[in-house]
Amino acid sequence: MNVLVAYASAHGSTRSVAENVGRSLSARHQVTTRPVAEIIGLDSYDAIVLGSAVHDGAWLPEAREFVLRTPPPSRSSRRGCSAWGSPACCHARCVVPRAGS
Ligand SMILES: Cc1cc2nc3c(=O)[nH]c(=O)nc-3n(C[C@H](O)[C@H](O)[C@H](O)COP(=O)(O)O)c2cc1C
Predict the structure, then answer these.
(1) Cβ(100) to ligand 1 under 6 A?
(2) What is the arrangement of strands in the sheet containing 30-35, beginning at the earlier edge strand?
């Protein structure tokens, strides 16, 4: 599978987690690990892993923007999504809730 590990990090620890996730996955998959702000298209990926630092109970703005600008997978798509850092969803029809809300 082609896997994208996308992250938003203010001070580097989320990037470090993302790089470790990417390294682990690369034993079995083709993996690209990249900051969300640098991601343009998702067509070449079969699965997305997304993570963000949490500031004041919310993902960083670039991570929220990435979720909102990412189209929902088509019905026929097998694309999966996994997220860490806060409850989230992989497509724009879902809400990225603030912690505690
Ligand atoms: C300004 C600021 C606000 C934060 N707010 C929260 C928060 O509301 N909840 C939380 O669990 N962690 C909070 N944290 C901790 C960060 O989410 C945590 O340190 C994270 O790993 C930082 O990731 P980064 O190094 O990739 O930026 C905050 C950190 C900073 C600097």
Answers:
(1) no
(2) 30-35, 2-8, 47-52, 80-84
Give this prediction's pTM: 0.81
- Within a domain: residue 13? yes
Burial of 56: CB neighbours in 10 Å, binned 0-12, 13-18, 19+: exposed
Instruction: Report how many domains make up the chain.
Output: 1
* 68 in Cβ contact with 89 (< 8 Å): no
Asked if 66 contacts 38 with a C-beta cutoff of 8 angstroms, the reply is no
d(Cα 65, Cα 63) in Å, to the nearest integer?
5
> Cα(59) to centroid of ligand 1, in Å?
9
Work out the average pLDDT over 1-12.
94
Nearest of 47, 89, 51 to residue 67 by alpha carbon: 89
Q: Is residue 39 included in any domain, yes or no?
A: yes
Cβ pair 62, 8 in contact under 8 A: yes
